[in-house]
Amino acid sequence: MNTNELTIYQKIRNDIISGELKKDEKITEAKLAKKYDVSRTPIREALKQLELEYFIKNSYIFMPTSEEYRQIFEMRILLETYALRKAAVVYTKADLEELNKYAEINIDKESEDKIIETNDQFHQKIIAATNNQFILDTYQKYKSFIYLFSQTVINQRRPGLIEEHKEIVLALFNRDIDLAVELLETHLKNDLEFSLYYLDFKKTE
């Protein structure tokens, strides 16, 4: 996507992830309005969204510890494995084929942005099976963390990433839901450990 087409929210989010906005730098409406050459109104709305997603806390970039990330992933595993069990009941053949399409991407040939987008579509398709707005809202609230981890996993080309997606889909096609859930849980744990290694979070214990 052309940077000129990005929303203010996306620009701020991307600048947080890239390190353009520093973690020890206080985030203010006036400073960001000047930086992005816009009025304070879109900045205010973007900051509200970023606070909801835990990108920003108390006017500073939120920097979770490795333990906090583990706790977030524990919740994510609970939500996605629950969603997968629902998917096994409600998914039609068309749903399974759609999920399979997201698992067919060639990680060696596609752009990083395309891989991140397709990876997101795969997991969003699973969580959507809950058809529960409260679960969907909770999942969206932590999308910033999921995005950061996805970016790290894909940027570093984690071995087995897409193959694990394919295995999950195959288990669903075979109606082996216990295996699919086990594979999904392992997949998410692999993402977590791989990302924490590269993100190099300092232990606070």
TrEMBL record:
All copies of domain HTH gntR-type, residue ranges: 2-69
Pfam families in alphabetical order: FCD, GntR
Any one GO molecular function term: DNA-binding transcription factor activity
InterPro entries: GntR_C, TF_FadR/GntR_C, Tscrpt_reg_HTH_GntR, WH-like_DNA-bd_sf, WH_DNA-bd_sf
Matching PROSITE patterns: HTH_GNTR (PS50949)
The keyword DNA-binding appears for this protein: yes
UniProt keyword terms in alphabetical order: DNA-binding, Transcription, Transcription regulation
CDD domains named in the record: WHTH_GntR
Name of the molecule in the record: GntR family transcriptional regulator
Origin species: Staphylococcus equorum
